[in-house]
Amino acid sequence: xxxxxxxxxxxxxxxxxxxxxxxxxxxxxxxxxxxxxxxxxxxxxxxxxxxxxxxxxxxxxxxxxxxxxxxxxxxxxxxxxxxxxxxxxxxxxxxxxxxxxxxxxxxxxxxxxxxxxxxxxxxxxxxxxxxxxxxxxxxxxxxxxxxxxxxxxxxxxxxxxxxxxxxxxxxxxxxxxxxxx
Length: 181
Known about the structure:
Blueprint: H1 9-58, E1 63-70, E2 78-83, E3 98-104, H2 113-116, E4 119-123, E5 127-130, E6 134-137, E7 141-148, E8 156-159, E9 163-170, E10 174-179
Parallel strand pairs: 5-10
Antiparallel strand pairs: 1-9, 2-3, 2-8, 3-4, 6-7, 9-10
């Protein structure tokens, strides 16, 4: 007697449906985990730019102070950037005012990410000077780390995921922000 080697669709269908639903569920969970991690960096970026604005407002005129901040994130790298209202490269959402921003990949795309993906705060100063610094950490990436300067770099400071210290000097018409450690 010859056996029919074809499967019976009625018998195999529940298994196929369960497998497809399982794959959809696994994909959905993976997406949610990825989305939560990405939105966490955005929340941290907003919190950091709010803290920088708060510290600038806290400082007295003519005073230079050091402030410690908690870094965040992994790739894409985030940067603290700042522009005076008349500087070139200022994001359109800031123009014509001065502003500080926290932006992803500012060194890679010359600060253009601040317009699309950055979190900016307008400030009532004629000039904002952020001394460009990339944080060098040879164990991770040669373009991130402490104390480097690239002359063609946008006015930004790289943010790592550990504590870092900024110097903020406030005068009547200007703010100066520099990376300390």
